[in-house]
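Q: Could you predict the 3D structure of Thioredoxin domain-containing protein?
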Amino acid sequence: MRSLLHGLLFLCGVALASLVEVDDSNFENLVFGQPGKYSFVYFYAPGCKHCQELEPHFEPLVDLYEGTSLQIFKINGRTNKRIRDKYKLFGYPTLKLFSAQGDDIGAYTGIRTTSKMIEYLEDATGIHPIYPPRTVVDVSPENIDQEVFEKLQNDVMLVFYAPWVERWENAHNSFYERLAQYYKNEVKDGTLFRAVDVSKAENNALLAQFKVAKYPTLFYFPKNRQDNDKPFRLDHDVGPEEIVEMLMGSDAGQREFSLVSSLDFTEVEEETKDADVDVQYRDL
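A: Sure. Here are the predicted structure tokens for Thioredoxin domain-containing protein:
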């Protein structure tokens, strides 16, 4: 069991993408060598703290733009003096977009998250990413019964997440999605991963029913349960290690939780209408 935990944590700590690194000798051939293709290049420096923070957000772009007219590269700005001098690089990380003809379209200076970089690239190039199918199922008041409450024979993980919170802003490559894929394809024990996006107004009733006020908050519904069994709640230190430990039957700090069941969704929405802004946006 411990080896499974270590394997899953390794899976969730690394990116799926294989990012091609260029250098002084092949920069122009690779970056500008494909007719009709743009290139988005990440200039980094070893040991750079801000570079290390950027990389988990940048690397998913490789998979998302595979098969499109946009290429993704990185280059060590310190050791490749010719390219560093050519583009007058003074600080790292630096992100630049190039045309196939070698035109320097400009540097990206926005928020360094996957979703924000995608917005920039779409605006600048008109090229859209190719999102892979997700294993995690989005839950709303309309489908929570069939996706969570009626899955009595399955372990069900239900997370309430905010897409502006670090590690949760890219639903297609988050550790939660990768964990769901691993359990589906490798473990194959029927464990289900569900998610509620708290930024969507349609989910306000669920926030009230589950009494959620901080993000992420995780609920665990063990398999072979009865209708009236209480789920377990974890609203601190929600990461891959805690999720795996809960599924293994260990104590990750989860506690039993009583759901609001006497009110229907419409009544809950009315009662919490005035608190919606505070609940959803207090972390912004």
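Q: Anything worth pointing out?
A: The first strand starts at residue 20 and ends at 22.
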